[in-house]
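Hey, quick one: can you model this chain's 3D structure?
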Amino acid sequence: MSSHVAAGDQVTSGLDRRTELREFLRSRRARLRPEDVGMLSHGRRRVPGLRREELAQLAGVSYAYYARLEQGYGETMSAEVLDAVARVLRLNEEERGHLIRLAQPERQSTTQAAPPPQRLRPTVQHLLDTIGVPAYVVGRRLDILGWNRLAAAVFGDWALLPPEERNVARLTFLSPAARDCFADPERVALRVAGVLRMNAAKSPADSHLSSLVQELLQKSEEFRQLWARHEVSCGIVGESVRMRHPLVGEFDLVLEPMTLPGGAPMRLMTYHAEPGSRSEDALRMLASWEMERLR
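Sure thing. Here's the predicted structure for all 295 residues.
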């Protein structure tokens, strides 16, 4: 373990459910002030945000009852209590789902015990090859399972990397060349860390996913800081992503992910340019360049 990683971080690295629940609730209390929820602030506060007793009062439960939830014991909590806590903490849909997964994993059909490695079906690779936009498929560990030529032109040729390095999170935090593909790599890094935390909560028994989190905690200061924020995310959906390429400069692509049916969840990530835009011209130039490179 790197000296940069605190002793508690190994447990908090993503897969101890009770620790995750406790730290998630604390982080969400810390971002709210009493005045944000219509309460008067009395006295000097040693830590930022709502106190436990204030949150319990707003949620309509006793302090002892809420404290038990924040200690990691959510199994006996009713759905109404969890909903009330989520409402007071102003959790969005992704964060609310994360809270329920951590508090009551038995309610989530997505939780698996020791899930096996994922493999791409040949028919899905054929689909990638026929799509006229940059596209690739990622698994629950953010492994890149397949991609097409346009994706290689935009993001770099992943075929040149060892299979174990073909991972979105590893590339985002450990590869300067991969980060250079984005004009705003910090924004991308925040979303990737959020997706990784959400997936870790869905598959707490996945030792490979846990090992990936540990590796990133040891090797990346940026990841350590983002992981400590306890953000959860489904990624950048339907938003414009500013790309950067040495041949065509900066251009914008819109990311549209789609969940593939059958077996363990996989996501098809597609990027398209607005019709008639300079970004579409840039993408067309990159497609032509990739065809020439492969001849």
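One thing worth noting: The beta strands are 135-138, 144-147, 240-245, 249-260, 266-272.
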